[in-house]
Design a protein that fits this description.
The protein is rod-shaped, with a radius of gyration of 25 Å. The chain has helices at about 10-20, 30-45, 55-80. The protein is built from 3 helices and no strands. The relative contact order is 0.10. It is about 65% helix and about 0% strand. The longest helix has 29 residues, at about 55-80. With about 90 residues, it is mostly helical. It folds into 2 domains: about 10-45, no CATH class; about 50-90. The model has no long low-confidence stretch (mean pLDDT about 80). Helix 1 (about 10-20) crosses helix 2 (about 30-45).
Length: about 90
């Protein structure tokens, strides 16, 4: 699974939100604080092994297809071996 970088706009927006939540007297350090928030967020989020929602959905559909195929093959094997097929697990 390949790691993806976050959208810089997302990180900027999150850093701005954190900055806005700070008390007014600390906002005087705006540039420094904003830069630090951004650097910390980029570093922390960059270490996570995340995928895009689109990639997650594609892989989820592939997995569903594979589970269905495995169930079909298990049933076919049971038929060929002459034993009753097992009912699939709930879930």
């Amino acid at each position: 699974m390949e790691s993806r970088a976050f959208d810089p706009g997302f990180i900027d927006d999150l850093a701005r939100r954190l900055h806005a939540a700070m008390p007014e007297r600390l906002r005087a350090l705006q540039e420094d604080v904003h830069g630090n928030f951004k650097a910390v967020l980029q570093s922390a989020l960059g270490r996570l092994d995340l995928v895009t929602r689109e990639e997650f959905d594609v892989r989820n559909e592939m997995l569903k297809t594979l589970y269905t195929r495995v169930e079909e093959l298990e049933q076919r094997i049971a038929e060929l071996e002459g034993r009753p097929p097992q009912s699939p697990p709930a879930g």
